[in-house]
Design brief:
With 158 residues, this protein is mainly α. The protein is built from 5 helices and no strands.
Length: 158
């Protein structure tokens, strides 16, 4: 996933400052996710474990929120402005995958904000990782579909 994140930054970095910041947030999510994955035997009494989990949840929710309330809206608006019905249709389908992942992100966050029981954290992280992988692929496809379509339309107007 981290390799794909770097690839996304290489492909779309510089397209807009907003997307650049969002992709940096994605990288931060993946770095923290990997750091949690490296912990052997989560212990709720270990303040370092609790702090790493809290940091991860904060970064994850911030990234997810930025996607929903900034990035996707901007991409969809660009599609509407350029009357890209095909790109918008594809984006709507991709948003279904993203929305499912959002539910898992919020459930994960809520669960670990409310409990000190870390017995199922490794399993929950594994499931979250699978969901994040699908999410990142859908986000990449949405940027590709809308960005590529927009670039072609802008080029054709000049």
């Amino acid at each position: 996933m981290l390799k794909n994140c770097k690839s996304a930054q290489e492909r779309w970095g510089g397209v807009s400052a907003l997307i650049d910041r969002w992709l940096e947030g994605r990288r931060d999510v993946l770095v923290e996710f990997c750091a949690l994955g490296d912990i052997q035997g989560f212990d709720s009494k270990n303040t370092l474990h609790r702090e790493k989990l809290k940091t991860f949840c904060e970064i994850l929710v911030d990234y997810t929120s930025a996607g929903h309330f900034e990035i996707y809206d901007q991409l969809v608006q660009e599609g509407k402005d350029l009357q890209d019905s095909q790109g918008l249709e594809a984006a709507n389908g991709l948003l279904e995958t993203i929305d499912a992942s959002t539910e898992m992100v919020l459930d994960f966050n809520d669960k670990y904000l409310e409990t000190d029981d870390l017995k199922t954290l490794a399993t929950d992280l594994s499931q979250l990782g699978e969901s994040l992988e699908a999410r990142l692929a859908a986000e990449d496809q949405m940027i590709e579909v809308l960005h590529t379509a927009h670039s072609e339309k802008v080029m054709n107007k000049t």
